[in-house]
Design goal:
This protein is an alpha/beta fold and 238 residues long. The protein is 38% helix and 21% strand. The protein has a single domain, classed as Rossmann fold (3-Layer(aba) Sandwich). The longest helix has 21 residues. The radius of gyration is 17 Å and the shape is globular.
């Protein structure tokens, strides 16, 4: 598993050079990010909330959250320092409201129960221990908090061809979980049963949502401790 992570770091470090210009920004990332924004707005409304974006890359989604949901405080975490470095201009633009941290999804460097929303879009298939990653996502959620997890939908013939054949051929050791597997992972982490929505775009994707308890709590302000990272790396530092 260590070798798989090292390979992913090397691949994504290379990809960071062209990541923001990738056709996937139009084909998959943009549509999935907009779906997340709609769902967060439905769930949270105009209340202040804290969001952790796992696999944040160069901060495209984090910046979109700040533009569309200005009451959000956003933390982004990514395993690849090169990706975070390429997002330096975004981190600076949103300094004080968006904090990038380098870290591992399987061992999140945050205290338990500090986020209202945890998102993970289009990176989950790279995680070697997907069960461990979902357990960590659940751990850092407050009671009533929501996990919104998006990855390629591989249960249709078209989706299988895209993700299990084409993507797997190009990216190597990746695993796109089925809708049933996402249900199992979310339930096992204490966030189920999952609510799932299939988006039948040219690159179809699945949104799986888990809830830590029933309903979202009201605004927390100072009553919840700040989810300061235990260590980490912020890319707005020179």
């Amino acid at each position: 598993m260590r070798e798989e992570k090292d390979l992913a770091v090397r691949e994504f470090t290379r990809w960071s050079e062209s990541y923001d210009r990738s056709i996937l920004q139009w084909l998959l990332f943009g549509p999935s990010h907009r779906a997340l924004i709609r769902r967060i707005r439905e769930a949270v409304g105009d209340r202040p909330f804290r969001l952790l974006d796992i696999g944040c890359g160069t901060g495209v989604f984090a910046a979109l959250v700040r533009r569309e949901l200005p009451n959000a405080e956003v933390w982004g975490i990514d395993l690849v320092g090169g990706m975070l470095a390429k997002g330096r201009s975004r981190w600076r633009e949103h300094a004080g409201r968006v904090l990038p941290v380098q870290g591992d999804s399987e061992n999140l460097p945050f205290e338990s129960g500090v986020f209202d929303v945890v998102t993970c879009a289009n990176s989950f298939h790279h995680y070697p221990r997907q069960d461990r990653a979902v357990q960590e996502m659940a751990r850092v959620l407050r009671p009533g908090g929501r996990l919104l997890l998006i990855d390629g939908y591989r249960d249709s013939a078209w989706g299988w061809m895209i993700y299990d054949v084409c993507v797997a051929t190009v990216e190597g050791s990746v695993h796109h979980a089925s809708a049933a597997r996402f249900q199992e992972l979310i339930a096992a982490a204490g966030l189920g049963p999952a609510i799932q929505t299939v988006h039948h775009n040219l690159a179809p994707f699945l949104l799986s949502e888990g809830v830590a308890g029933a309903g979202l709590p009201g605004p927390h302000f100072h009553r919840v401790r700040t989810p300061a990272a235990r260590g980490g790396w912020a890319s707005d530092r020179d």
